[in-house]
Design brief:
Blueprint: H1 2-24, H2 29-36, H3 40-57, H4 63-75, H5 81-92, H6 96-109, H7 114-126, H8 130-143, H9 147-159, H10 165-174, H11 176-187, H12 193-199, H13 212-221, H14 225-236, E1 261-262, E2 268-273, E3 277-282, E4 288-295, E5 300-310, E6 318-324, E7 332-335, H15 336-339, E8 343-347, E9 354-360, E10 369-380
Antiparallel strand pairs: 1-4, 2-3, 3-10, 4-9, 5-8, 5-10, 6-7, 6-9
């Protein structure tokens, strides 16, 4: 019985010590060493920590770190970390073949190692094997909870060169869930925006793509209004020539900025209603915008007209204004009640794109305004009319 109890006690101690090492080795390797300094997990964690600290300081890695990892590799042959370090050492020595062999050995020992996938992807891309490198990046995204977000900047840089597009296209076709976060990052930079359209699946409708609003904003911010509008037309199928889109307030699917961007905020509420109407509830507490649309009007004279329903007595709290893109002040503005009689304004030359805005202006005694616009129409006026 004593022998049995003694054996059980030894086993229990070993289990407790392993649990302590497992809980401390990654976050607190020094604390783990107090429990079992020669445990392979402790040695790996201490060695990797020393390497990381040296890299952070730009200092040479201490020999003791490598001794720890070599000792761990002997006693824990399935641990990937010593092979990762061996691969990095080989890279520094200029031995790409040995580095690849070590990184692959690390991944073979632990197919779920994030570090192994990272070092292999970096290695393959360094030596110009784009296909293998991108496949490892796809593995990395599956292993890391935020992998797709983490590697997006890496792939964006890679996508800047059109020569890499075929390899990226294959990657996204094989890993469609990876495409959207990468495309959103690409779409946020005017330099890499062309890659989005080149790499997007041509068989998919881009109207509902996550990256489309970002791409349109990026291009318009860069002053590429015509190009942005052409992409918007391709996405929405709107081909007809028009001065203003959705004057009937019926298009709920086409995205801004070339369709209405309607507000629901502390300023108020603007919403489409059946019967070609725009309903507005302005709270009157603060200034702000209820509706906007980006127009591409040619220089000349224009007239906007409409019908106003509901509370028209306080409609002067709302106003229309037209702004050249990026201008600090409007070309023209008019109170909503006055716009019923027809609002005339001129677009000057050099004003390539214009923001049409419907805004609310608060007063010292704020009052809520509930009104509706119907029969909205924008026409170009003949010269001299």
């Amino acid at each position: 019985m004593f022998v049995a109890i003694g054996g059980a006690s030894v086993l229990a101690i070993a289990v407790v010590r392993n649990a302590a090492v497992a809980s401390f080795s990654e976050a607190q390797p020094e604390a783990a060493a107090k429990f079992w300094k020669n445990h392979p997990a402790t040695q790996i964690s201490l060695g990797m920590t020393q390497i990381a600290l040296a890299a952070r300081k730009g200092a040479a890695v201490p020999d003791g770190a490598f001794r720890l990892l070599r000792s761990a590799a002997t006693r824990e042959p399935l641990a990937p970390e010593p092979f990762l370090v061996r691969g990095v050492q080989a890279q520094f020595a200029g031995n790409a073949t040995a580095a690849q062999r070590a990184f692959k050995a690390a991944q073979w020992r632990n197919p779920h190692s994030v570090q192994a996938a990272y070092f292999l992807s970096d290695h393959y891309l360094r030596i110009g094997d784009a296909g293998a490198g991108l496949r490892q990046l796809a593995v990395l995204t599956k292993l890391s909870p935020k992998g797709a977000v983490a590697i997006s900047p890496y792939l964006v840089t890679y996508a800047a060169d059109p020569k890499n597009w075929p390899a990226l296209r294959s990657l996204f076709q094989a890993n469609p869930t990876l495409a959207d976060p990468v495309f959103v990052t690409m779409a946020s930079n005017a330099r890499t925006a062309p890659a989005v359209l080149a790499l997007a699946n041509p068989r998919e409708n881009i109207r509902d793509a996550q990256w489309l609003p970002t791409l349109l904003t990026t291009l318009t911010d860069a002053g590429q209004h015509e190009r942005a509008h052409a992409i918007w037309q391709k996405a929405t199928g709107v081909r007809r020539a028009e001065l203003i889109h959705d004057a009937t307030f019926s298009d709920r699917t086409s995205p801004p900025p070339f369709n209405w961007d309607l507000t629901s905020s502390a300023v108020g509420l603007a919403e489409r209603q059946p019967g070609a109407r725009l309903h507005m509830l302005y709270y009157g507490q603060q200034d702000g915008i209820l509706a906007t649309q980006l127009l591409l009007l040619q220089p000349g004279s224009y007239r906007l007209s409409m019908q106003l329903l509901g509370d028209t007595a306080r409609a002067k709290a709302l106003n229309w204004s037209i702004w050249c893109d990026k201008a600090g002040s409007p070309i023209s503005s008019v109170a909503l009640d006055a716009a019923v009689r027809g609002w005339r304004f001129d677009v000057p030359s050099g004003c390539q794109a214009q923001w049409l805005k419907l805004s609310g202006s608060s007063s010292e005694l704020p009052q809520q305004l509930d009104t509706t616009i119907a029969n909205l129409k924008l026409e170009r006026r003949a010269p001299g009319a």
